[in-house]
Write a structure and sequence with these properties.
single chain, six-stranded antiparallel β-sheet, 24% strand, 27% helix, alpha+beta, disordered N terminus, Pdz3 Domain
Length: 403
Amino acid sequence: MLFTGLRGRLSGPVPGPEQYVVMDTAEPTVLPPPPGGPPAEPDAEVAPGRRPWSARRKWFFFIWMAVLAAVASAGFLWKLPYYTLSPGSARDTEQFITISGAPTFSDQGGVIDYLTVSVKQATPADLLLAWVDPAVEVVEAEQVLGKQSPDENREFNLQLMATSKDAATYQALRRMGFEIPISGTGAVISSVNESVPAAAVLASGDVVVSANGEPVVVNQDLIRLVSGLPAGTVVELGIQPFQGGDSRPVSVELVARPEDPTRSMIGISTFTRDLSFDFPVDVSIDSGRVGGPSAGLAFTLGILDALTPESLTGGTRVAATGTMELNGSVGLVGGVHQKVVAAREEGVDLMLVPSAEVDEARTYAGDLRVEPVDDLDMALRVLATVGGGDAVLPPPSTAAPVG
């Protein structure tokens, strides 16, 4: 049975199992003073219908509070085998590019942004955020790290960024008429399209050092050796670890390009390992802690804009994403959804994306104009529609060195 009310101090025998005493506790109870001692103080007044907490109840309360605090802390600190991709920022390339050895110019009113994605190992709280925010995507850790540790992956992505800056400088200076010798030690795979047969045998970090017995020194060699082969052709690649060592043979089947079925591809993005250039103009790009190769196109356009007296953007705010290859082609990137959201929130007017990813980009673009590009020339033709690009650059065939 339940005991309703507050237990008071009882005189006489203790009630039996079926005896219950209810006392009126609206007034304080005063104990008689002990013999020879000072008068006893009244007990603290207790509100009617409430029972003072016992030491046991207090301990239970503190234990439960500690448990809840631990659970809440785990929600923000417990690392799960997943990563979240969130919209990052749109950053003006002009403030990060420094050029010496040639005259430079500021684009009055126009901006060329590169876009970032925030990549973070997920906690339970991050998964909850992803559940309520459609712009946040959750992927398995292996999709981000491949076979690398987090530290190795971080170093790898910083190398990708360094290589993309070199490729951007190479393409921009070549477009302005400079001849630039290059060298390298193989084509490093930066990403693999999961839908192609090569995904079963190739991974990020692998280095292609030969194709059908021909050496691959720079990634442009690999493109040259396979681009003329029809879809369905099996190519024998020599694969080496990123850190070096013995190579192993791998067979991959070429597939048709989604945007042009008459052309074939392996389905990978690459950059050149140990890429070395002899640049006649010193170009420095401060990318901070940002890693990955996807800013290559934006940096190429940013350098061209700095070397061009007139505005390459026609005075508009342009964002670009896509790798820049040594042959001028624009490669695929990750996080297109998040980059489009970042561009839209930053007030970008025109966004350039690799052609194979334009449909995905337009799904989230809203009123933002999104245009597909396959290479640098195509990007410049798009910019010409807003009064920049090829409209303000000398033709490639007659371009003369700057300065």
